[in-house]
Design goal:
Number of helices: 14
InterPro entries: Tubulin (IPR000217), Tubulin_CS (IPR017975), Tubulin_FtsZ_GTPase (IPR003008)
Number of strands: 12
GO cellular component, one term: microtubule
Order of helices and strands: EHEEEHEHEHEHEHHHEHHEHEEHHH
Distance between the termini: 47 Å
Domain Tubulin/FtsZ GTPase: 34-230
Strand order of the largest sheet: 5-4-1-6-7-8-9-12-10-11
Keywords: GTP-binding, Microtubule, Nucleotide-binding
Strand content: 15-25%
Shape: globular
Structural class: alpha/beta
CATH architecture of the domain at 2-247: 3-Layer(aba) Sandwich
CATH superfamily of the domain at 2-247: Tubulin/FtsZ, GTPase domain
CATH class of the domain at 2-247: Alpha Beta
GO biological process, one term: microtubule-based process
CATH topology of the domain at 2-247: Rossmann fold
Amino acid sequence: MCSAFHLHIGGAGVMMGDVLWKLYTKEQGDTIEKNYIFNETENNNYPLSLYADLDDRMINEVKKNKSICYQSNSFVTGKEDAANNYFKAYYNIGKEICEIALNQVRRQVESMDRLDQFIITSALSGGTGSGFTSIMMEQLSVEYDLKVEKNAFFIYPSQRMSNNIVDSYNAVFATHTTLEYCNSVVMFDNQSMYKVIDLQIGLDFVDYTQLNNLVSQIISSYTGLRRFSKINNNKLFSGLCPYPRVHYIIPQYGLLASIDDYINQELNEKSLISFVTKPDQRLLQCEMKPALFCASLIYRSKYTNPFLGQSNLTLQNIRTKHQETPNVFQCQSQNYTVIPELAQLRQTGVFFSNDASVYNYFDNLGKKYDQLYNKRAFVHWFYGEGCEFGEMFQCREDLQALCNDYEEGYHQCGLEEDKDIE
């Protein structure tokens, strides 16, 4: 029996993991493959996970939750954060605890019959989330070979809101690593998640718990294919990535509904598919019209429909370069929630797309990087922590090459004349 191992790195990655494992614990009683994400011993379910951060503030918050049986080797912390500096986490304080983290991973992997994949959560704006995630992915690739997939769920910098002036530096450096060491990267940004939550439920106040819940619901549906339906979920992302470098995925999720109004918001199957595939539900901000290489839908409901999507006009009308219609996967499970204000709906959907319009996001990220680098702003921070001459230039070149790959694909899809989405 195979298992997946979760890595939650940096402050944001740790808090995403906190919400995710609360959700997993609530779902565990109904799962078929109970050892896929848990190690069941002595009537206890121990999460197969590692929380890693260069300071202990966020991890101490996770440890307060006694309802989840974390093992002692599920946590690794340092004594000093990376101060929003990729190279401080990559070359200095992160390198010091990297071997400790790898040992904790080894001890847990030894309890598995077979390691299926690593699932990684992090935010690439900060120093730990970008730098320490990068060094961990590199070392895991050496230790477990490229046969063990690494599928990442990363928060990228928003284009119009930020609390970190060097977030574009950190994100570009980390993207350089994900090109080689990730099999797939599911991309989010906070601004888009705020917008989607507001569109779907219109809460008066949205905090990071709501954002983390949104990411967690998507990861849960992805792993739920294996846990509830015994479907090889590796096929989902491998089917979305037609070329090795082109593995950046944009997710969409629906439906979120308030506990006070869920009866009026519950959608039927046809309406749900139409809703979740709309471009305005994308959880990464792209200003261009979608141009899809490939796409997949996860339909989550306790009741399966063997004919799901076969005659659905919405799916049939979605243009993809490498598919006749998007792939459809069914996760046979009821929907759970860990936020009291949200309702547990009968059915939800996750739409993943390898969308060539993501070149617009990468292009804007590169321009933001250039605005700082052309003036050599804050460059001394990174050189002071071990950045070698030419590294910053090489990372920017790799981002531009990736952007060019996607832009070429966008034009091949025949949408270059379409107007931007308002």
